[in-house]
């Protein structure tokens, strides 16, 4: 199985800051990675797929980059509504696996 | 509007069975693969199962293989998860999620609100 590791597990930043979350895979994924946002008590929401493609309706302050085993989610200009937990997910092979999650908070 | 709605969760004793249902609307259900993903209380996301659009391919997480079975009825726009031999560690919110539909890439673009399964004596 492909193991997914996220860092940091928690980040607290000020409004307007740039926030970067890293996801590492135990083997190469090419570009087969997605990012999700999950707010408390809600279902996850797809933000980015294929490493850098923005899902329809997602604000452009969210961006993804990377390939192979290292990927990044960037929030450019943190807003209060971005407070959530973010997960990466590899879409290369079954079993599908998720990262451990990164909780983003506002200072 | 694309929607998926789960039902069937509840309290069940260890060793018991439960069947979850998920109905899709607002899209051509028979054209999409579907998945089940679960989340234990206070924990992260765990993928559970996949079923292709015509039911020709099914995959399961190691933790549920042999105990859970996924199926679908495209005439009813529904996908199911039959859960047998339930264990305490199966306690979770179970989400039904539509596959985005990219060739050989599996991502989940539409999720239901989730249904809670509690396994306890």
Plain-language structure description:
The complex is a heterodimer of chains A (107) and B (121). In chain A, 0% of the residues lie in helices and 52% in strands. With 107 residues, chain A is mainly beta. In chain A, the strands form two sheets. In chain A, strands 2, 4, 5, 6, 9, 10 and 11 form a seven-stranded mixed β-sheet that branches. In chain A, strand 9 and strand 10 (97-98) form a beta hairpin. The model of chain A has no long low-confidence stretch (mean pLDDT 97). With 121 residues, chain B is mainly β. Chain B has strands at 3-7, 10-12, 18-25, 34-39, 45-51, 58-60, 68-73, 78-83, 92-99, 108-111, 115-119. In chain B, strands 2, 4, 5, 6, 9, 10 and 11 form a seven-stranded mixed β-sheet that branches. Chain B has a four-stranded antiparallel β-sheet with strand order 1-3-8-7, with no helix packed on it. The mean pLDDT of chain B is 97. The chains are: A mainly beta (107), B mainly beta (121). The A-B interface holds A 1, 32, 34, 36, 38, 43-46, 49-50, 55, 87, 89, 91-92, 94-101 and B 35, 37, 44-47, 50, 59-62, 95, 100, 102, 105-109, 111-114.
């Amino acid at each position: 199985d492909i193991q997914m590791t996220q860092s940091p597990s928690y980040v607290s930043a000020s409004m307007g800051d740039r926030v970067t979350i890293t996801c590492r895979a135990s083997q190469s994924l090419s570009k087969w990675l997605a990012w999700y946002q999950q707010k408390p008590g809600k279902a996850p929401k797809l933000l980015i797929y294929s490493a850098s493609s923005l899902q329809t309706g997602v604000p452009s302050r969210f961006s993804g980059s990377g390939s192979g085993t290292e990927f990044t989610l960037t929030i450019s200009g943190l807003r209060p509504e971005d407070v959530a937990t973010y997960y990466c997910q590899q879409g290369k092979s079954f079993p599908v696996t998720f990262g451990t999650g990164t909780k983003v908070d506002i200072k | 509007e694309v929607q998926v709605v789960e039902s069937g969760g509840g309290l069940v004793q260890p060793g018991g069975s439960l069947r979850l249902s998920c109905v899709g609307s607002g899209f051509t259900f028979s054209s999409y693969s579907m998945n089940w993903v679960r989340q234990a209380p206070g924990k992260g996301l765990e993928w559970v199962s996949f079923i292709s659009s015509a039911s020709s391919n099914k995959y399961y997480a190691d933790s549920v293989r042999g105990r859970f079975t996924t199926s679908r009825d495209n005439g009813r726009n529904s996908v199911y998860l039959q859960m047998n031999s339930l264990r305490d560690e199966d306690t979770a919110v179970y989400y039904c999620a539509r596959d985005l539909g990219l060739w050989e890439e599996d991502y989940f673009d539409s999720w239901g609100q989730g249904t809670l399964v509690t396994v306890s004596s």
